[in-house]
Protein backbone atom coordinates (compact mmCIF):
# COMPACT_ATOMS: atom_id res chain seq x y z
CA UNK A 1 0.00 0.00 0.00
CA UNK A 2 1.19 3.52 -0.81
CA UNK A 3 1.00 6.43 1.63
CA UNK A 4 1.58 10.02 0.49
CA UNK A 5 2.41 12.51 3.26
CA UNK A 6 1.49 16.10 2.49
CA UNK A 7 2.24 19.41 4.27
CA UNK A 8 1.44 23.02 3.36
CA UNK A 9 4.95 24.43 3.51
CA UNK A 10 8.45 23.19 4.28
CA UNK A 11 10.64 25.57 6.23
CA UNK A 12 14.10 24.94 7.60
CA UNK A 13 13.06 22.10 9.89
CA UNK A 14 11.41 19.00 8.48
CA UNK A 15 8.22 17.90 10.20
CA UNK A 16 9.53 15.33 12.64
CA UNK A 17 6.03 13.85 13.07
CA UNK A 18 6.07 12.75 9.43
CA UNK A 19 9.40 11.00 9.96
CA UNK A 20 7.96 8.92 12.80
CA UNK A 21 4.68 8.24 10.98
CA UNK A 22 6.57 7.16 7.86
CA UNK A 23 8.53 4.68 10.01
CA UNK A 24 5.22 3.42 11.42
CA UNK A 25 3.84 3.01 7.90
CA UNK A 26 6.90 1.10 6.75
CA UNK A 27 6.51 -1.22 9.74
CA UNK A 28 3.18 -2.36 8.29
CA UNK A 29 4.72 -2.79 4.82
CA UNK A 30 3.63 0.50 3.28
CA UNK A 31 5.62 2.53 0.74
CA UNK A 32 5.84 6.21 1.67
CA UNK A 33 6.11 9.43 -0.35
CA UNK A 34 6.34 13.15 0.43
CA UNK A 35 4.71 16.29 -0.96
CA UNK A 36 4.97 19.93 0.14
CA UNK A 37 2.45 22.31 -1.43
CA UNK A 38 4.94 25.17 -1.71
CA UNK A 39 6.95 23.17 -4.24
CA UNK A 40 4.60 20.47 -5.57
CA UNK A 41 1.07 20.11 -6.89
CA UNK A 42 -0.85 17.55 -4.85
CA UNK A 43 -3.19 16.59 -7.69
CA UNK A 44 -0.27 15.86 -10.00
CA UNK A 45 1.61 13.96 -7.29
CA UNK A 46 -1.46 11.88 -6.50
CA UNK A 47 -1.95 11.10 -10.20
CA UNK A 48 1.71 10.07 -10.50
CA UNK A 49 2.01 8.05 -7.28
CA UNK A 50 -1.57 6.72 -7.06
CA UNK A 51 -1.56 6.57 -3.23
CA UNK A 52 -4.03 4.49 -1.28
CA UNK A 53 -3.80 6.95 1.61
CA UNK A 54 -2.97 10.65 1.72
CA UNK A 55 -1.89 11.75 5.20
CA UNK A 56 -1.87 15.49 5.89
CA UNK A 57 0.18 17.02 8.69
CA UNK A 58 -1.09 20.51 9.51
CA UNK A 59 0.40 23.02 11.92
CA UNK A 60 -1.44 26.03 13.35
CA UNK A 61 -1.11 27.64 9.90
CA UNK A 62 -1.74 26.06 6.50
CA UNK A 63 -5.15 24.49 7.06
CA UNK A 64 -6.95 26.41 4.30
CA UNK A 65 -4.21 25.62 1.77
CA UNK A 66 -4.34 21.91 2.61
CA UNK A 67 -8.14 21.80 2.39
CA UNK A 68 -8.13 23.51 -1.01
CA UNK A 69 -5.45 21.15 -2.36
CA UNK A 70 -7.24 18.10 -0.95
CA UNK A 71 -10.60 19.00 -2.48
CA UNK A 72 -8.98 19.57 -5.86
CA UNK A 73 -6.97 16.33 -5.71
CA UNK A 74 -9.90 14.15 -4.68
CA UNK A 75 -11.86 15.27 -7.76
CA UNK A 76 -9.58 13.32 -10.08
CA UNK A 77 -7.95 10.80 -7.73
CA UNK A 78 -9.27 8.11 -5.42
CA UNK A 79 -7.69 7.75 -1.96
CA UNK A 80 -8.51 7.64 1.75
CA UNK A 81 -7.44 10.74 3.67
CA UNK A 82 -6.41 11.48 7.22
CA UNK A 83 -5.22 14.72 8.84
CA UNK A 84 -3.08 15.03 11.96
CA UNK A 85 -0.90 17.59 13.68
CA UNK A 86 -1.55 20.69 15.82
CA UNK A 87 -4.52 21.92 13.79
CA UNK A 88 -6.76 18.82 14.17
CA UNK A 89 -5.61 18.46 17.79
CA UNK A 90 -6.40 22.01 18.85
CA UNK A 91 -9.28 22.68 16.43
CA UNK A 92 -11.19 19.37 16.20
CA UNK A 93 -14.43 21.26 15.42
CA UNK A 94 -13.04 22.01 11.92
CA UNK A 95 -13.34 18.36 10.85
CA UNK A 96 -16.57 18.93 8.92
CA UNK A 97 -14.99 21.61 6.72
CA UNK A 98 -11.80 19.66 6.03
CA UNK A 99 -13.26 17.14 3.60
CA UNK A 100 -10.97 14.37 4.86
CA UNK A 101 -12.05 10.93 6.07
CA UNK A 102 -10.46 11.16 9.51
CA UNK A 103 -8.80 13.55 11.95
CA UNK A 104 -6.05 12.22 14.21
CA UNK A 105 -6.02 14.11 17.51
CA UNK A 106 -2.92 14.17 19.71
CA UNK A 107 0.01 11.75 19.58
CA UNK A 108 -0.45 9.80 16.40
CA UNK A 109 1.82 6.77 16.05
CA UNK A 110 -0.51 4.19 17.60
CA UNK A 111 -3.64 5.57 15.96
CA UNK A 112 -1.94 5.80 12.55
CA UNK A 113 -0.71 2.22 12.74
CA UNK A 114 -4.21 1.00 13.61
CA UNK A 115 -5.72 3.15 10.85
CA UNK A 116 -3.37 1.82 8.16
CA UNK A 117 -3.99 -1.78 9.14
CA UNK A 118 -7.75 -1.22 8.92
CA UNK A 119 -7.36 0.34 5.47
CA UNK A 120 -5.11 -2.54 4.32
CA UNK A 121 -7.75 -5.03 5.46
CA UNK A 122 -10.59 -2.94 4.02
CA UNK A 123 -12.16 -2.53 7.47
CA UNK A 124 -13.92 0.51 9.00
CA UNK A 125 -11.84 2.73 11.28
CA UNK A 126 -14.54 4.71 13.09
CA UNK A 127 -13.77 3.19 16.51
CA UNK A 128 -10.01 3.85 16.63
CA UNK A 129 -8.88 5.88 19.65
CA UNK A 130 -7.65 9.41 18.75
CA UNK A 131 -9.66 9.48 15.50
CA UNK A 132 -12.57 11.69 14.53
CA UNK A 133 -14.66 10.52 11.57
CA UNK A 134 -18.08 11.42 10.22
CA UNK A 135 -19.52 8.63 12.38
CA UNK A 136 -17.59 8.97 15.63
CA UNK A 137 -15.37 11.12 17.83
CA UNK A 138 -13.11 8.92 19.95
CA UNK A 139 -11.16 9.81 23.07
CA UNK A 140 -7.36 9.80 23.01
CA UNK A 141 -5.36 6.78 24.12
CA UNK A 142 -2.67 7.13 26.83
CA UNK A 143 0.55 8.88 25.84
CA UNK A 144 3.50 6.71 24.83
CA UNK A 145 5.34 6.26 28.12
CA UNK A 146 8.59 4.79 26.76
CA UNK A 147 9.73 6.69 23.67
CA UNK A 148 12.37 4.01 23.07
CA UNK A 149 9.56 1.76 21.83
CA UNK A 150 9.02 4.00 18.80
CA UNK A 151 10.69 3.03 15.52
CA UNK A 152 13.66 5.13 14.43
CA UNK A 153 12.33 8.16 12.54
CA UNK A 154 12.48 7.98 8.76
CA UNK A 155 14.45 11.20 8.29
CA UNK A 156 15.21 10.21 4.70
CA UNK A 157 11.60 10.78 3.60
CA UNK A 158 11.81 14.57 3.82
CA UNK A 159 15.56 15.19 3.72
CA UNK A 160 16.15 13.24 0.51
CA UNK A 161 13.12 14.74 -1.21
CA UNK A 162 13.58 18.44 -0.47
CA UNK A 163 16.06 21.31 -0.37
CA UNK A 164 16.87 20.37 3.24
CA UNK A 165 19.41 17.79 2.12
CA UNK A 166 21.68 20.71 1.14
CA UNK A 167 21.19 22.95 4.17
CA UNK A 168 23.91 22.84 6.85
CA UNK A 169 21.52 23.14 9.81
CA UNK A 170 19.56 20.05 10.82
CA UNK A 171 16.87 19.90 13.52
CA UNK A 172 16.35 17.18 16.14
CA UNK A 173 14.06 16.56 19.10
CA UNK A 174 15.16 15.08 22.41
CA UNK A 175 11.82 15.26 24.18
CA UNK A 176 8.05 15.30 23.81
CA UNK A 177 5.78 17.63 25.73
CA UNK A 178 6.21 20.82 27.74
CA UNK A 179 5.76 20.91 31.52
CA UNK A 180 4.36 24.45 31.49
CA UNK A 181 0.94 25.88 30.63
CA UNK A 182 1.52 29.46 29.49
CA UNK A 183 -1.84 31.04 28.68
CA UNK A 184 -0.94 31.97 25.08
CA UNK A 185 0.22 28.47 24.18
CA UNK A 186 -1.81 25.48 23.06
CA UNK A 187 0.07 23.33 25.56
CA UNK A 188 -2.52 24.18 28.22
CA UNK A 189 -5.15 22.55 25.96
CA UNK A 190 -2.82 19.55 25.50
CA UNK A 191 -2.47 19.14 29.27
CA UNK A 192 -6.26 19.05 29.62
CA UNK A 193 -6.64 16.65 26.69
CA UNK A 194 -4.24 14.13 28.24
CA UNK A 195 -5.10 14.61 31.90
CA UNK A 196 -4.74 11.25 33.64
CA UNK A 197 -3.30 9.61 30.51
CA UNK A 198 0.39 9.62 31.24
CA UNK A 199 3.32 11.95 31.77
CA UNK A 200 3.24 14.93 29.39
CA UNK A 201 7.03 15.33 29.30
CA UNK A 202 9.08 12.37 28.13
CA UNK A 203 12.64 12.02 26.85
CA UNK A 204 14.20 9.84 24.20
CA UNK A 205 17.15 7.79 25.46
CA UNK A 206 20.38 9.70 24.90
CA UNK A 207 21.84 6.87 22.82
CA UNK A 208 18.83 6.88 20.47
CA UNK A 209 19.16 10.64 19.98
CA UNK A 210 22.90 10.48 19.33
CA UNK A 211 22.48 7.66 16.81
CA UNK A 212 19.80 9.63 14.96
CA UNK A 213 22.10 12.66 14.75
CA UNK A 214 25.01 10.47 13.62
CA UNK A 215 22.86 8.92 10.89
CA UNK A 216 21.78 12.29 9.51
CA UNK A 217 25.27 13.75 9.88
CA UNK A 218 26.81 10.82 7.98
CA UNK A 219 24.34 11.03 5.10
CA UNK A 220 23.54 14.73 4.71
CA UNK A 221 25.35 18.01 4.90
CA UNK A 222 25.38 18.97 8.59
CA UNK A 223 27.49 21.66 10.27
CA UNK A 224 25.07 22.97 12.90
CA UNK A 225 22.43 21.32 15.09
CA UNK A 226 19.20 22.86 16.32
CA UNK A 227 17.17 21.16 19.04
CA UNK A 228 13.57 22.16 18.44
CA UNK A 229 12.13 21.01 21.78
CA UNK A 230 9.87 23.46 23.63
CA UNK A 231 12.28 23.02 26.53
CA UNK A 232 15.50 21.10 25.91
CA UNK A 233 16.41 20.59 29.56
CA UNK A 234 15.58 22.10 32.93
CA UNK A 235 18.60 20.97 34.95
CA UNK A 236 21.92 19.17 34.90
CA UNK A 237 20.44 15.74 35.66
CA UNK A 238 21.87 12.33 34.74
CA UNK A 239 20.24 12.43 31.27
CA UNK A 240 21.89 15.72 30.44
CA UNK A 241 25.25 14.67 31.84
CA UNK A 242 25.18 11.63 29.56
CA UNK A 243 24.06 13.77 26.62
CA UNK A 244 26.80 16.37 27.06
CA UNK A 245 29.50 13.70 27.19
CA UNK A 246 28.30 11.68 24.21
CA UNK A 247 27.43 14.70 22.09
CA UNK A 248 30.84 16.30 22.59
CA UNK A 249 32.65 13.05 21.79
CA UNK A 250 30.58 11.69 18.89
CA UNK A 251 28.88 14.71 17.29
CA UNK A 252 31.11 17.67 18.15
CA UNK A 253 29.07 20.30 16.32
CA UNK A 254 27.82 23.67 17.60
CA UNK A 255 24.15 23.63 18.57
CA UNK A 256 21.22 25.77 19.65
CA UNK A 257 18.44 24.85 22.08
CA UNK A 258 15.55 26.30 24.08
CA UNK A 259 15.97 26.93 27.82
CA UNK A 260 13.83 28.44 30.54
CA UNK A 261 15.39 31.43 32.31
CA UNK A 262 14.45 30.51 35.86
CA UNK A 263 16.06 27.07 35.65
CA UNK A 264 19.47 28.22 34.38
CA UNK A 265 22.39 27.77 36.77
CA UNK A 266 26.17 27.36 36.59
CA UNK A 267 26.04 23.57 36.63
CA UNK A 268 23.73 23.53 33.60
CA UNK A 269 25.74 26.18 31.76
CA UNK A 270 28.98 24.28 32.36
CA UNK A 271 27.55 21.15 30.74
CA UNK A 272 26.05 23.13 27.85
CA UNK A 273 29.39 24.74 27.13
CA UNK A 274 31.25 21.41 27.38
CA UNK A 275 28.80 19.85 24.94
CA UNK A 276 29.34 22.63 22.40
CA UNK A 277 26.29 24.88 22.86
CA UNK A 278 26.64 27.95 20.64
CA UNK A 279 23.39 29.78 21.45
CA UNK A 280 20.14 29.46 23.38
CA UNK A 281 16.58 30.62 22.83
CA UNK A 282 14.83 32.08 25.89
CA UNK A 283 11.56 33.88 26.54
CA UNK A 284 11.03 36.80 28.89
CA UNK A 285 7.66 37.60 27.30
CA UNK A 286 7.06 40.74 29.40
CA UNK A 287 9.31 42.77 31.69
CA UNK A 288 6.21 43.34 33.85
CA UNK A 289 5.91 40.53 36.39
CA UNK A 290 2.15 41.15 36.61
CA UNK A 291 1.63 40.74 32.86
CA UNK A 292 4.03 37.81 32.69
CA UNK A 293 2.35 35.95 35.55
CA UNK A 294 -1.30 36.97 35.46
CA UNK A 295 -1.97 37.50 31.76
CA UNK A 296 0.58 35.37 29.91
CA UNK A 297 0.80 32.61 32.50
CA UNK A 298 4.61 32.35 32.41
CA UNK A 299 4.98 31.55 36.07
CA UNK A 300 8.70 31.89 36.69
CA UNK A 301 10.63 31.76 39.92
CA UNK A 302 11.71 35.21 41.05
CA UNK A 303 15.13 35.77 39.53
CA UNK A 304 17.19 38.70 38.35
CA UNK A 305 16.57 38.35 34.62
CA UNK A 306 19.32 40.74 33.55
CA UNK A 307 21.94 39.02 35.73
CA UNK A 308 20.88 35.58 34.45
CA UNK A 309 21.15 36.67 30.82
CA UNK A 310 24.59 38.16 31.50
CA UNK A 311 25.65 34.91 33.19
CA UNK A 312 24.74 32.92 30.07
CA UNK A 313 26.80 35.32 27.97
CA UNK A 314 29.74 34.95 30.35
CA UNK A 315 29.96 31.29 29.33
CA UNK A 316 30.39 32.33 25.70
CA UNK A 317 26.84 31.25 24.80
CA UNK A 318 24.87 33.68 22.62
CA UNK A 319 21.31 34.61 23.60
CA UNK A 320 18.13 34.96 21.56
CA UNK A 321 15.46 36.48 23.81
CA UNK A 322 11.80 36.80 22.87
CA UNK A 323 9.43 39.50 24.12
CA UNK A 324 5.68 39.61 23.49
CA UNK A 325 4.44 43.10 22.63
CA UNK A 326 0.90 44.43 23.01
CA UNK A 327 -0.23 41.81 25.52
CA UNK A 328 -3.67 42.50 26.99
CA UNK A 329 -3.47 45.03 29.87
CA UNK A 330 0.21 45.79 29.18
CA UNK A 331 1.31 49.42 29.14
CA UNK A 332 3.39 51.19 26.55
CA UNK A 333 6.07 51.60 29.21
CA UNK A 334 6.15 47.80 29.70
CA UNK A 335 6.94 47.28 26.03
CA UNK A 336 9.49 50.10 25.82
CA UNK A 337 11.27 48.60 28.83
CA UNK A 338 11.97 45.44 26.82
CA UNK A 339 14.53 47.50 24.89
CA UNK A 340 16.07 48.75 28.13
CA UNK A 341 16.30 45.21 29.51
CA UNK A 342 17.99 43.88 26.37
CA UNK A 343 20.51 46.71 26.49
CA UNK A 344 21.32 46.11 30.16
CA UNK A 345 21.55 42.33 29.66
CA UNK A 346 23.63 42.63 26.49
CA UNK A 347 21.30 40.24 24.67
CA UNK A 348 22.79 38.94 21.43
CA UNK A 349 19.52 39.16 19.49
CA UNK A 350 16.30 40.61 20.86
CA UNK A 351 13.29 39.12 19.10
CA UNK A 352 9.94 40.84 19.39
CA UNK A 353 6.55 39.37 18.53
CA UNK A 354 3.04 40.79 18.59
CA UNK A 355 0.70 39.01 21.00
CA UNK A 356 -1.98 36.96 19.22
CA UNK A 357 -4.62 35.30 21.44
CA UNK A 358 -5.27 32.04 19.61
CA UNK A 359 -8.69 30.43 19.88
CA UNK A 360 -8.60 27.51 22.29
CA UNK A 361 -6.02 29.10 24.61
CA UNK A 362 -6.56 30.61 28.05
CA UNK A 363 -5.28 33.94 26.71
CA UNK A 364 -8.08 33.98 24.12
CA UNK A 365 -10.71 33.57 26.85
CA UNK A 366 -8.97 36.20 28.99
CA UNK A 367 -8.90 38.65 26.07
CA UNK A 368 -12.60 38.14 25.37
CA UNK A 369 -13.45 38.68 29.03
CA UNK A 370 -11.43 41.91 29.27
CA UNK A 371 -12.68 43.37 25.99
CA UNK A 372 -9.40 43.13 24.08
CA UNK A 373 -10.93 41.09 21.26
CA UNK A 374 -14.43 40.49 19.95
CA UNK A 375 -16.04 37.07 19.66
CA UNK A 376 -15.51 37.14 15.87
CA UNK A 377 -11.75 37.76 16.25
CA UNK A 378 -9.96 35.56 13.72
CA UNK A 379 -6.27 36.52 13.63
CA UNK A 380 -3.79 33.68 13.12
CA UNK A 381 -0.14 33.23 14.05
CA UNK A 382 1.00 35.40 11.13
CA UNK A 383 -0.25 38.25 13.34
CA UNK A 384 2.87 37.75 15.47
CA UNK A 385 4.85 39.71 12.87
CA UNK A 386 2.25 42.40 12.20
CA UNK A 387 0.80 45.44 13.94
CA UNK A 388 -1.50 44.52 16.83
CA UNK A 389 -5.20 44.00 16.05
CA UNK A 390 -6.35 44.06 19.70
CA UNK A 391 -9.07 46.59 20.46
CA UNK A 392 -7.64 47.67 23.83
CA UNK A 393 -4.93 49.91 22.35
CA UNK A 394 -5.09 53.23 20.51
CA UNK A 395 -3.80 53.48 16.94
CA UNK A 396 -0.85 55.54 18.18
CA UNK A 397 0.03 52.86 20.75
CA UNK A 398 -0.16 50.18 18.08
CA UNK A 399 2.24 52.15 15.88
CA UNK A 400 4.77 52.55 18.69
CA UNK A 401 4.58 48.88 19.60
CA UNK A 402 5.08 47.90 15.98
CA UNK A 403 8.09 50.21 15.80
CA UNK A 404 9.50 48.35 18.82
CA UNK A 405 8.96 45.13 16.86
CA UNK A 406 10.85 46.57 13.87
CA UNK A 407 13.60 48.62 15.55
CA UNK A 408 13.84 47.36 19.14
CA UNK A 409 16.82 45.09 18.56
CA UNK A 410 18.81 47.81 16.80
CA UNK A 411 18.04 50.46 19.41
CA UNK A 412 19.01 48.10 22.25
CA UNK A 413 22.53 48.06 20.82
CA UNK A 414 22.94 51.84 20.53
CA UNK A 415 24.82 53.93 23.10
CA UNK A 416 24.51 57.41 24.57
CA UNK A 417 22.68 60.00 22.47
CA UNK A 418 22.04 57.46 19.68
CA UNK A 419 20.08 55.28 22.09
CA UNK A 420 17.89 58.21 23.11
CA UNK A 421 17.46 59.17 19.46
CA UNK A 422 16.37 55.62 18.67
CA UNK A 423 13.73 55.72 21.39
CA UNK A 424 12.50 59.09 20.10
CA UNK A 425 12.11 57.66 16.58
CA UNK A 426 10.20 54.65 17.89
CA UNK A 427 7.80 56.90 19.83
CA UNK A 428 7.26 59.60 17.21
CA UNK A 429 7.34 58.08 13.71
CA UNK A 430 5.14 55.85 11.62
CA UNK A 431 6.19 52.27 10.86
CA UNK A 432 7.46 52.05 7.28
CA UNK A 433 9.24 49.88 4.72
CA UNK A 434 12.64 51.28 5.66
CA UNK A 435 12.22 50.07 9.24
CA UNK A 436 11.17 46.65 7.94
CA UNK A 437 14.32 46.52 5.82
CA UNK A 438 16.48 47.37 8.84
CA UNK A 439 14.86 44.59 10.85
CA UNK A 440 15.38 42.05 8.06
CA UNK A 441 19.05 42.95 7.61
CA UNK A 442 19.70 42.72 11.35
CA UNK A 443 17.80 39.44 11.63
CA UNK A 444 19.70 37.87 8.72
CA UNK A 445 23.05 38.87 10.18
CA UNK A 446 22.40 37.56 13.69
CA UNK A 447 20.60 34.37 12.67
CA UNK A 448 23.43 33.43 10.31
CA UNK A 449 26.35 34.39 12.53
CA UNK A 450 25.40 34.62 16.19
CA UNK A 451 22.40 32.35 16.76
CA UNK A 452 23.13 29.71 14.16
CA UNK A 453 26.74 29.43 13.03
CA UNK A 454 26.23 28.98 9.31
CA UNK A 455 28.46 29.33 6.23
CA UNK A 456 27.85 32.23 3.84
CA UNK A 457 26.82 29.87 1.04
CA UNK A 458 23.75 29.00 3.14
CA UNK A 459 22.33 32.44 2.38
CA UNK A 460 21.88 31.48 -1.26
CA UNK A 461 19.66 28.59 -0.18
CA UNK A 462 17.83 30.80 2.30
CA UNK A 463 17.03 33.41 -0.32
CA UNK A 464 15.37 30.79 -2.50
CA UNK A 465 12.79 30.00 0.18
The termini sit apart by: 33 Å
How many structurally independent domains? Answer: 2
Q: Could you please say which CATH topology of the largest domain applies here? A: TIM Barrel
Portion of residues within helices: 40-55%
Q: Which structural class do the helices and strands define? A: alpha/beta
> What is the correct CATH architecture of the largest domain?
Alpha-Beta Barrel
Q: What is the overall silhouette?
A: globular
Strand order of the largest sheet: 2-1-3-4-5-6
Question: Can you summarize the main beta sheet?
Answer: 6 strands, mixed
How big is the Rg?
23 Å
Structure explained in plain terms:
With 465 residues, the chain is α/β, with parallel strands linked by helices. It folds into two domains: 2-132, Rossmann fold (3-Layer(aba) Sandwich); 167-464, TIM Barrel (Alpha-Beta Barrel). It has helices spanning 16-27, 42-49, 63-76, 86-90, 95-98, 109-120, 156-159, 187-193, 206-219, 238-251, 266-275, 289-295, 305-314, 332-345, 362-369, 395-412, 416-428, 433-451, 458-464; strands at 2-7, 31-36, 53-57, 80-84, 102-104, 131-132, 169-172, 175-176, 202-203, 224-227, 255-258, 277-285, 318-325, 349-354. The strands form three sheets. Strands 2-1-3-4-5-6 form a six-stranded mixed β-sheet, sandwiched between helices. Strands 7-10-11-12-13-14 form a six-stranded parallel β-sheet, sandwiched between helices. Strands 8-9 form a two-stranded antiparallel ribbon. Helix 10 links the parallel strand 10 and strand 11 (255-258). Helix 10 runs parallel beside helix 11 (266-275) and helix 14 packs parallel to helix 16 (395-412).
Amino acid sequence: MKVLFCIAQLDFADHIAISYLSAVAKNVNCETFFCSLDSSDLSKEAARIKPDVVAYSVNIQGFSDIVAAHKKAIESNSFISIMGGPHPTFSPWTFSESGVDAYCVGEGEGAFSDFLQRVINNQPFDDIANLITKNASNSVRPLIDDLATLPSPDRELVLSNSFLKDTPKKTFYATRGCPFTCSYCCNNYYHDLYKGKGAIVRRFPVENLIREIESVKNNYRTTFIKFGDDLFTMKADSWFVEFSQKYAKRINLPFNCFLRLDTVDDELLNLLKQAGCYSVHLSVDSVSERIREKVLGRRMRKINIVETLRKIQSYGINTWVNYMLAAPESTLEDDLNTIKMSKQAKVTYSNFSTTVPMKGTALYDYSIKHGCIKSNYNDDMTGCVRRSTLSCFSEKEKDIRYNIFLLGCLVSKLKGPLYNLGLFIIKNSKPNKFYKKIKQILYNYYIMNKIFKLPKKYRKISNKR
